[in-house]
Specification:
The complex is a heterodimer of chains A (154) and B (221). Chain A is mainly α and 154 residues long. Chain A has eight helices and no strands. Helices cover 21% and strands 23% of the residues of chain B. Classes of the chains: A mainly alpha (154), B alpha+beta (221). At the A-B interface, helix 1, helix 2, helix 3, helix 5 and helix 6 of A face helix 1, helix 2, helix 3 and helix 4 of B.
Amino acid sequence: MYRDNVTWVYRLMFSKVGNQPDAEDLTAEVFMTALRPLRISASIPEVRKYLKMTARTVLASYWGDRMGREVTYIHVDVPEADEQRPVASDAPDKVRSLLERLPDNYRCILELRFLQAFSVREAAAQMGVSVANAKVLQYRALRLAAQTSGEEAP
Amino acid sequence: MTRTVRRFVEGLLRGQPTGRARPDDFEAQQMKAAIELRSARLGSDSPREEFVTDLHRRLAGTTEPAPDGTRRRVVVGTGLAAASAAAGLVVGRNLLRPSGAPGPSAQGVLEPNAGAWRAVGASADLSEGGALAFDLGSVRGFVHLAAGKLEAVSGVCTHQGCKLWLDAPEQRLRCPCHSTSFSLQGANVTHQLPIAPAPLPKFQVREANGVIEVYAPTEPA
């Protein structure tokens, strides 16, 4: 039960919080929480559904504690099959299409910083701008990305 | 760009856990976009093998059959009400980290009818962050320094009276009976009981001439 599910639960959490320590804590919490109810003989889809519901509650509680609001949340209506794929969700596709709609320099700074793990300094050198400039670019790019993805949301 | 978002993004890109903030709508939207971007990084969303193994071990540890033959009820605390209620058990994030949430009942100070100041150790033996165990026969407990101030709490679990032991590296007082643990200040940190056990009573404690003294009941005549 644990080994079959730990990876997708972790990936789901990572996709919602974006950092390893919190993703690990939340994953642990999901399994700690779900442990007892799951010991009763449950079918595989039931186990998955229960873990997901638990994950949703755990994530909501985490954001409530950290930010007083749900910055991200887990959709329960995502088809189960999606989580069995090696990649947890369609996030990379979504991000790609989001990036494609941004101006070149904005797309470039976000790709370097978030996807390729460049430091501000490295990203600035790569783009041929000053460090201060790169910082400003990054924050403006993120603002625009947030607006763009916000408009797209239902 | 607000400071809230900037701080969040900087932490995120450094791989740090998320701190507390109170973002508005648009700030939260930017955080969400940052998380989506960060988690789209290739190869960064697989769990560490050590984490997977360690969690497995922790889960196995909580599922050993209890002495009465039933399975133990696992984990408990505050927080997480909804899923837990649905699941018929109470669970909280404070198994994983101290929550700092107030306990279910107030923490009293031990005030015996007849007491005396009794030496429990030398001040030199106690460093900031450390703790000193003492046993005076009638009472036992642990004294520690908190921001230069002496504090002492009972060393007896408030659930069923088992003797607590000092887990020095974790700065916890642990109960050998039911996986209950307390902070050095006496607050309940983890437990697996239907209701959180009360915090540990405090002792009056003072320092006199380099000696730590606790106000304890006098021995019966």
